[in-house]
Amino acid sequence: MTGRLEGKVAVITGGASGIGAGTARRFVEEGASVVIADLQRDAGEELVAELGDGACFIRCDVTIEDDIAAAIDRAVAEFGCLDVMFNNAGIVGATGPIADTPADAWDNTVSILLRAVFLGTKHAARVMVPQGSGTIISTSSTAGVLGGLGPHAYTAAKHGVIGFTKSVANELGQYGIRVNAIAPGNTVTAMTAKVTAGHHENTDGATDRIAKMSLLGYAGFPDDIANGVLYLASDEARYVTGHTLVVDAGHTTAGLKPNRFHVGETVQYHEAGRTT
Questions:
Q1: Are 44 and 16 in contact (CB under 8 A)?
Q2: What is the domain-level CATH number for residue 163?
Q3: Model-level pTM?
Q4: Containing domain of residue 103, as a range?
């Protein structure tokens, strides 16, 4: 432990499992106090028991504004302030062809993935603006950076998180508040296990599938994303705002696997009329 968040207070939505739980552990290790806001009461309370006095749990449905407001108020009441808001709760949501996507499934997906980010940011700003400091971090995705990496509603919402982050960073910087996003690539969680390996408990299968797709040859885990969130939350990122930190083993910039031009084949290219 290096105390990179010593004395800081954070709220993490979706904090009882996956990336949220990994981030809660890292934050507490680094000296923060954490409010875990989640629908999963049993998982949340088990995590609090693990983390000790540096954490508390509040049941939170991120589609309900009063629940998010209550989570932030709990941080202030329990620990005295709010330094970090991590809007992280998420689902895969509506899937399938666009012509067959039910409007109510679309609306529910956007409500959890984008509207909840707005609500978390709104109520974090309510506390942070008067205190003149704070950092707000929201979970986007590589599906928010490129098309074709997720279902339509998920992709639209995650793109929205990035645009919203830039817009709010422009407003809140004058109050000493930094606003950033993190865009995880394929990460081994219960959600991705269900998608990639057919069952939320099959994390071994998900690990194998993700590793095979990875440019680096190994899978990403919640700790890998949590380390990025930790950086954005810490004073080390004091000059970073309006930014989306992509943590994806190079997927969105270098591809998934070496293509044929990188495996010893003869490559032909034209330069100034010359073929090599």
A1: yes
A2: 3.40.50.720
A3: 0.89
A4: 9-185+220-275
